[in-house]
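Progress against Task 2.4 (sequence-to-structure conversion) is shown through the following example record, which the project officer requested during the mid-term review.
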Amino acid sequence: MSDINYREIEVLPVDFEEMVLLLKNRIQTRLPNRWTDFLTSNFGMELLEAFAYEATLFHYYLNASVNECFMPTAKTQTAVYNLAKTIGYKPLGPQQSTVSVRFSIPAVITKNIDIPIYTKLNSSSGIPFYTTENAVLYKNTTYVDVDAKAGSLFDETFISTGEAKYKYVLKNYPVNAVESVFVDDQEYTYSSFMDLETTDLLYTIEFDSDYKASIIFGDGKYGSNPSKGSIINIIQQVMFHLLLLIQF
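Structure tokens generated for the chain above:
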């Protein structure tokens, strides 16, 4: 097979006016005696310009699609995230502050005080927090330090469709983290990628460009798939200040 002579490859124009001129030149070359009227008012010119417009538009979208396939030229957030996933990196949503909160009382007491996980708090400026562990303020002590995170917790319930890899889209966003996922009172564990054959109770999270989160379970082969009609309960953490910006 002979080598390709790249000098003979014709480079087509991408500009609308150049495309119209190319089409006119081809018609004049191939139909010199059959089409001689190239006035703008000619209906044939309207068709020619319509073809040139569609060709220009097609070229634009083709170039845009190809650009999104490569990291140096990708411009959309979705494309960058999808490219990152191909090398094992899964971008996360915005992250909240983690602090240590002190619960104190003015004087010792004779019984313990339980401080359950997800206890809601507010800073002096009104920013909500919640505790991330169970704690106890024991008798004969006056304080206890507990870890907490900034943000608001939301509880959402879904009915399983039974469909493999179905996306359960959470209503509130932007989601910082999913605190827990239970299916019929069985807790599922988060996995960044479900690409190993297992029947473990796993779920993963996908974010869109607005950090709306979708919970995805396995397909029965790569992670367990909840049966149709199962009750799915999800506790999610939403960034407080971003939530205000979105709502107002």
